[in-house]
Amino acid sequence: MNFSNVEAQFVGDNGAVIAYVIELGIIGDKQKEPMKCACTSTWVKENNNWVCTLHTEADLSQQ
Questions:
Q1: I want to staple 6 with a disulfide (CB 3.0 to 4.6 A). Which of 1, 20, 27, 44 is the partner?
Q2: 51/54 Cα distance (integer angstroms)
Q3: Hey, how many other C-beta atoms are within 10 angstroms of the C-beta on 15?
Q4: pLDDT single digits (tens) 11-47
């Protein structure tokens, strides 16, 4: 698993948005190309803990 193009932006004191590209491959499967996705997660701080409230992925493998 490889992460790249990681960007983070705080939204006030209790919120953050993180965007990144992830590349996933299946171990032992040399015939399949790794899957590449653009991901975005929204995080909110609740009771002093960060909680992911929304996560999205867009497949970039077919482009």
A1: 20
A2: 9
A3: 14
A4: 999 999 999 999 987 666 666 677 899 999 999 999 9
CA–CA dist 41, 56 (Å, integer): 7
User: Under a CB-based contact definition with an 8 Å cutoff, are residues 2 and 25 in contact?
Assistant: no
The pLDDT assigned to 30 comes to 65
The rounded distance, in Å, linking the Cα atoms of 26 and 32 is: 8
Task: Evaluate if pTM is beyond 0.85.
Answer: no
Segment holding 24, helix H or strand E:
strand 15-24
Query: Rg of the Cα trace of the chain?
Result: 15
- Check if the beta carbon of residue 14 is closer than 8 Å to that of residue 45: yes
